[in-house]
Amino acid sequence: MRLSRCFLPVMKESPSDAQIVSHKLMLRAGLVRQTAAGIYAWLPIGWRVLQKIGQIVREEQDRAGAIEMLMPTLQSADLWRQSGRYDAYGPEMLRIKDRHDRDMLYGPTNEEMITDLFRGDVKSYRDLPRTLYHIQWKFRDEVRPRFGVMRGREFLMKDAYSFDIDEAGARNSYYTQLLAYLRTFQRLGIRAVPMKAASGPIGGDLSHEFIVLAPTGESEVFYDAAFEEFDWAQEALSYDDADGLKALFEKVSTTYSATDETHDEARWAEVSPDRRREGRGIEVGHIFYFGDKYSASMGLKVSGPDGSMVTPQMGSYGIGVSRLVGAIIEASHDENGIVWPETVAPWKVGLVTMRGDDEASVQAAEDIYKKLTAAGIEVLYDDRDERGGVKLGSMDLIGLPWQLVIGPRGLAQGVVELKCRRTGEKVELSIDSALERLTA
Amino acid sequence: MRLSRCFLPVMKESPSDAQIVSHKLMLRAGLVRQTAAGIYAWLPIGWRVLQKIGQIVREEQDRAGAIEMLMPTLQSADLWRQSGRYDAYGPEMLRIKDRHDRDMLYGPTNEEMITDLFRGDVKSYRDLPRTLYHIQWKFRDEVRPRFGVMRGREFLMKDAYSFDIDEAGARNSYYTQLLAYLRTFQRLGIRAVPMKAASGPIGGDLSHEFIVLAPTGESEVFYDAAFEEFDWAQEALSYDDADGLKALFEKVSTTYSATDETHDEARWAEVSPDRRREGRGIEVGHIFYFGDKYSASMGLKVSGPDGSMVTPQMGSYGIGVSRLVGAIIEASHDENGIVWPETVAPWKVGLVTMRGDDEASVQAAEDIYKKLTAAGIEVLYDDRDERGGVKLGSMDLIGLPWQLVIGPRGLAQGVVELKCRRTGEKVELSIDSALERLTA
């Protein structure tokens, strides 16, 4: 992408209404613009990050055997009356009347709708187990939206729903999503610690939150440093291995972690002091096993192996996709701007000419841009008519993993500069070597 | 994908409320389920088609230099008051009050919002021309939603917006999108004829609709058969070639096409009778050049080359992505079900064992499934415990381009059957030859 043809407005100053670093950086680096209280437009660079996060979430859901679909944003109030949640849900539910004066709502979650869809089409235990998910915009009418996309009103969520014939099956589905979550967050380049949680308005008795440490987090968290050493992606664990999944769950359950809501001082005292980690955290995922709460209230039954009718056991599994953009920035930035993990960076390489009026520099940049693009590498080429220092500042701000900088003096000696955004390390090397490193 | 682990409920009978063939087939083949009047959930197979269509639209927008972003579904009424459309828009606009009693709406289109975003960040003619687009859910509160996703209330639309410094630039942006549309529809496997249109509530004096012929279409259309012979994808036309784009526009404008709204009997009489095509059509895209209608009313100005302030010229460009699923089915089906164009088919190959209880058949199917998947071919493997005839019926209904059928008798002789869904042609050939054909 040529910056001169993109839409990437960067700001020198932080807007005064942004209180936390991720919100400030998302505005300054041109990821989002607020269009109404707690509602944001995703500009091209923000949209690229959002898509990359969504794609990793999708790939790990697919790998775990969940099936993608898409439910609509607006729902009929009647569905929510069947579960009893329409009246129970507070003013965070955005209630709407259509032109025929029918009660609708902007879905904050989809337990009722998926149960209704399942009820309409699934009749036999042979169609179980099944986990369905979608990645769709939700709305929660927060009384005081703040912190940018971290606590917005319209937000993108991945929510999955599992249906099993019995509790053992439902627990296996729960463990499957637990592993999928651990893998997902690791691939996103952040440490999200699973914590036993109270289940709140979803109901049920088994629930974990996934919390990213950040000073601006909403809740206080406590965990054993062992969580920092687990490598979930490397766990040679198959989703077909029920015993292995159960062992994973035991490992997560027996290693101490808690929010202030569930914190247990007695158990905390048993954790060796050098392994105690405390801080504030941001919730980026939440999973629930809630048994027959919705299937029973909404009359979902399937015929069992012996012909009798059975009420399926359900769970639901959320990831805050748009919130993750903020959470990743909270966890990964420095004084100059964002430092994207490579897996979610909007582009891998920023290509900069220090002198846009130097013919040789421009020619070299065009050549490198073509070669990297042809090799399938995502490049943002800053071809604007700006001073070199301004371009380098923008590149640090938007935080691409690599900067390839072309200056007239270096070029005369056949070298360019390659800078790693995370470490700040710069090396001078030939164009060919730089290309080789970036395409390796 | 193994059908036994998917969520693909097929129905033998057409639901009685479905009046047109695409709606019937979308319900029977398990693409969608209605969740409220004019609102649909996209089940896995429907979601796959929707994504494929969206991806082709996206690729052709990107190729034409448009930049993707994402605007939110809910908008502030204040934005629409600035353009004067809030009061002008009829009851099709879904008006919403949030918990603080602020006037909101579910966006039916985004001219106001994109103009506002542009106004906030673009200050100079050097940032023009620019075309931005998003693929996002919209809402129009139709008084009588019908025909399934063809005239639903919540629908997925691609809408692009162009900003230029003058009319010549704006016309070039318009011609660029015109070509992108012709290429897009051709890649989707449908013939969409561009027709000069009245511009309606968007405003402006230059506008084309893109119409797919189908007996259930809403409007009557007339066009010169020359449109059936143009090959837009093959046109050696570069988006950088302004003269070539203008010539394309002239070619489209001088070849007769019209809806009943714009039909001109005198010009029609000049078309040679054997080239006159008449029928009903479905609108799948609509493009508009409307000058400064929104930039002027909303106060968008940029500094021009000579320092004076200039009001940019704008256009907008819509494609009905969810409607296209229905339109493609209207244009491509037979008495047994859907016949997907290969570019948008949910899977390329349906793999069927005639006898699920025959060990050798199952082994062969598993082996073929692995090999095709490893080769990157999308396969739906019907591994259900059903009679062969039922499976074949389902495959015809859901309309994948190729069916690979394994029967015990053929297998004993080392052959399988490969059926082309579109032509019905069946050939017996060795497994290796079948794999070779499908992966070629």
From TrEMBL, chains A, B:
The protein's role, per its UniProt record: Catalyzes the attachment of proline to tRNA(Pro) in a two-step reaction: proline is first activated by ATP to form Pro-AMP and then transferred to the acceptor end of tRNA(Pro).
| Enzyme Commission (EC) number | 6.1.1.15
What subcellular locations does the record give? Cytoplasm
Residue intervals of the Aminoacyl-transfer RNA synthetases class-II family profile domain: 38-341
Q: Would the keyword Nucleotide-binding turn up in this protein's UniProt record?
A: yes
Q: Which GO terms describe its biological process?
A: prolyl-tRNA aminoacylation
- Self-association and partners: Homodimer.
What name is this protein filed under? Answer: Proline--tRNA ligase
- Kindly give the Gene3D superfamilies that the UniProt entry links to this protein: Anticodon-binding domain (3.40.50.800), Bira Bifunctional Protein, Domain 2 (3.30.930.10)
Catalytic activity reads: tRNA(Pro) + L-proline + ATP = L-prolyl-tRNA(Pro) + AMP + diphosphate
Tell me which family the UniProt entry assigns to this protein: Belongs to the class-II aminoacyl-tRNA synthetase family. ProS type 2 subfamily.
> Per the record, GO CC terms?
cytosol
Q: Which InterPro entries does UniProt cross-reference here?
A: aa-tRNA-synt_IIb (IPR002314), aa-tRNA-synth_II (IPR006195), aa-tRNA-synth_II/BPL/LPL (IPR045864), Anticodon-bd (IPR004154), Anticodon-bd_dom_sf (IPR036621), Pro-tRNA-ligase_IIa (IPR002316), Pro-tRNA-synth_IIa_bac-type (IPR004500), Pro-tRNA_synthetase (IPR050062)
Against NCBIfam families, the record matches this protein to: PRK12325.1, proS_fam_II
Q: Which organism is it from?
A: Sphingomonas edaphi
Q: Which Pfam families match?
A: HGTP_anticodon (PF03129), tRNA-synt_2b (PF00587)
Q: Which GO terms describe its molecular function?
A: ATP binding; proline-tRNA ligase activity
The UniProt keywords, alphabetically, are: Aminoacyl-tRNA synthetase, ATP-binding, Cytoplasm, Ligase, Nucleotide-binding, Protein biosynthesis
Q: Which top EC class is named for this enzyme in its record? A: ligase
Q: What is its main location?
A: cytoplasm
